[in-house]
Amino acid sequence: MGRYDSLKLGNQLCFPLYASAREIVNLYHPHLRELDLTYTQYIAMMVLWERGEISAREVGKLLFLDSGTLTPVLKSLEKKGYITRSRSKEDERVLLVAPTDAGMALRERALEIPEKIGCAVRLTEEEAGTLYTLLYKILAALPEDE
Amino acid sequence: MGRYDSLKLGNQLCFPLYASAREIVNLYHPHLRELDLTYTQYIAMMVLWERGEISAREVGKLLFLDSGTLTPVLKSLEKKGYITRSRSKEDERVLLVAPTDAGMALRERALEIPEKIGCAVRLTEEEAGTLYTLLYKILAALPEDE
DNA sequence: AGCGATTTAATTGAACACAATCGAATTTGA
DNA sequence: TCAAATTCGATTGTGTTCAATTAAATCGCT
Question: Which residues of chain B have a CB within 8 Å of the CB of A49?
């Protein structure tokens, strides 16, 4: 063991984590292009498909994204006609976003994406489950701010 | 099982992978700030510490980064005085980068970073090993371009 | 009621990240 | 040999990503 072994790329968890995340996201791009969505717009739509009307703050919390990232994403989705943005009647500070009919229609076309990606990621069902569990363990253990 | 279950955030591996990668990288920022390095500059320096003089192309290959990302990173490291950039005598197209004395000195100060990060990521030795293996399995199975 | 603290998005600035393209240098192959 | 293809890096454009700040609205406390 050398004095600097801990600084080797091959010994740091952060590196394969960071690299594989980017590589996986890139796998989505060709499929998402057909839906005129970026990856970030896609995961935002996933929240809206599942939850319907929801506040921007909650979307950010679910996706671990702050307003600096989310604001332009939501504006872009509104511009494409996939969502509406409106202020809450009860609290004018709250931005409510909701999928439009066109936005909900996208869901149908998006259905084939997870299937295609699943084929490209060569893990067994069990491995994927283990990975999934470990990643959520990391996310859960992080110093949250709430 | 609903028709759209595959599109739920909670069923997609990409999501916790993407989110945890960003969160982990953010754990580095406060420590790296003391070294006047960004995370990308840090992993680039890790390659140079380990390999010494190396071509920009090889750095990009090791880090899974393309020239559009790497060019400004290497220029910035040169500006800080941590690396030199020069053209290969054998092939003028090749950009050689190498750590300076100041760059190598940084290594000493960087030693404590992996240790601190390790504490923040609440995984056992075994879990980290499993995660590591699965992530490299993903990276190895990706459609490479070479 | 009213003032200070808090909450929520939006904005700004710096740094990635990748696709697409370009230009220079080199290699290949007829 | 020499034109075509390839390689390598830089550049440009679009889209994140987060920190820090701002501004508006609301809440809480007296």
Answer: 4, 7
Give residues with Cβ within 8 angstroms of B123, minimum separation 6. A134, A137, A138, B131
Whether A63 contacts A30, CB under 8 Å:
no
Could you report how far apart the first and last alpha carbons of chain B are, in Å? Answer: 41
User: With an 8 Å Cβ cutoff, is A102 touching chain B?
Assistant: no
Question: What is the rounded CA–CA span in Å between residue B75 and residue B78?
Answer: 5
In this predicted structure, what is the pLDDT of residue B146? 37
Cα distance between residue A14 and residue A57, in whole Å = 28
Report yes or no: A28 at the B interface, CB cutoff 8 Å.
yes
Write down the pTM of the prediction. Answer: 0.92
Checking each nucleotide's C1' against the CA of A87, the nearest proves to be C9
pLDDT in tens, B10-53: 888 999 999 999 999 999 999 999 999 999 999 999 999 999 99
As a whole number, mean pLDDT of residues B126-137 equals 93
Nearest CA-CA partner of A97 in A109, A88, A107, A110: A88
Please give the mean pLDDT across all residues of chain A: 92
pLDDT for residue A144: 60
Kindly state whether A119 is in contact with chain B, defined as any CB-CB distance less than 8 angstroms.
no
pLDDT at A65 over 50: yes
Cα gap B85→B18, rounded to integer Å: 32
Q: What's the CA gap between A66 and A70, in Å, rounded?
A: 6
Whether residues A25 and B16 touch (CB distance < 8 A) is answered with no
Full set of structural domains in chain B with CATH: 14-111 (1.10.10.10)
